[in-house]
Amino acid sequence: MNEVKDLEAWLMPWLNAHLPEFASLAYTVIALALIVVISLGIHFVLHRVVLRWVEGRARSTQRIWRRAFFERKLFGRVALTLQGVIIYLQAGLWLERDTLLLPAIQTAANLWILLYALLSLYSLLDALLDIFRQRPAMRAFPLRGIFQSIKLIASIFIGLLIVATLIGKSPIILLSGLGAMTAVLMLVFKDPILGLVAGIQLSANDMLTVGDWLEMGRYGADGEVIDIGLTTVKVRNWDHTITTIPTHALISDSFKNWRGMSESGGRRIKRGLRLDASSVRFLDEADIRRLQKARLLDGYLNEKLQEIGRYNSEQPVDMSSLVNGRRLTNLGTFRAYLAVMLRQHPHIHQQMTLMVRQLETGSDGIPIEIYAFTNTTRWADYEGIQADIFDHIFAVLPEFDLRVHQSPTGYDLRQMASSP
């Protein structure tokens, strides 16, 4: 106030002497010119000197936070906010209290400050998100959804302050009348509210993080989670399409998260083949001698033959009949071979469940299923390992005199037609 009085005391006598009828108007024009000159000078210093120096430091440094703050325009928006504060203070310093321009300029400055303060908060949150994404430990948190929630709350709060500034009322009055608009606001912001609650639940229960493999058939999603937002979750499918899922749907509906498989270090093989039941038979002496040459079956056959020999010697039965006593079968020996092969396979996880099982027989043959885990979770490697195993299985079946069950093909029909 002393500065205003000093400026008035210095200018007003001179203005009254030379412009007696326009002294007050002339003083207002001079005060406005002073505000404009000082504001332009500060703008030049901040944007042409300070921010350029900050830009040079940010581009030359290896520190992620400096680059993130500059690239998200945080410093520029803070500078503009500061300029609004300076204009507001200058208006109070230089302009007379009874002039109509004072409330107009201060109201405009208030709106300027609120707007750029909100934009500065946006830039700060975006920069923090960029910084946290560079840290592996923070990638698991749905920070984008949390920051979007903060932006939404800040936007509503700043919006109330802007309306209160324009109508010249206290924001408390607006807040007191907000209760009557609760139903409307809940309808308008239904998805953000549901998304906020769902994001908190997903984070608190560690149900989903960026980078997880998500499968959700209802939405056609099968791929990697690339973004968890306030209202949507983006999934990059394996065909490189993008599926967008409402965040609240991950709480209300069921989805499959493959993260456990990735973290375990093993991926399950659960695939089988169906054998022709008519090809199953007992092994004779010639078959046993031939199969004993197989390195993987040598130990199994010796142990099994001793066990069967002891059992049969203890039973007073006529072994000339195939229904009496115990005997080796080509199917049982084949299952034992597969189990030993998987136990010695270099790409099968030996600390996880491993078995070769026979399922319920039906009209389409005898199902034999391999249940094991690879020691890698890489998709391409997993498919290659699985294919190599079954390539070998199909190729070795004739050694056990077993046949794959399959429906007649055109080739089979032509063979039947051409046979005499």
Automatic annotation (TrEMBL):
Pfam families: MS_channel_2nd, MS_channel_3rd
Membrane topology, from the record: Multi-pass membrane protein
GO cellular component: plasma membrane
Domain of life of the source: Bacteria
Coiled coil: none
Membrane as UniProt keyword: yes
Database matches in InterPro entries: LSM_dom_sf, MS_channel_C, MscS_beta-dom_sf, MscS_channel_2nd, YbdG
Protein name: Mechanosensing system component YbdG
Organism: Oceanimonas doudoroffii
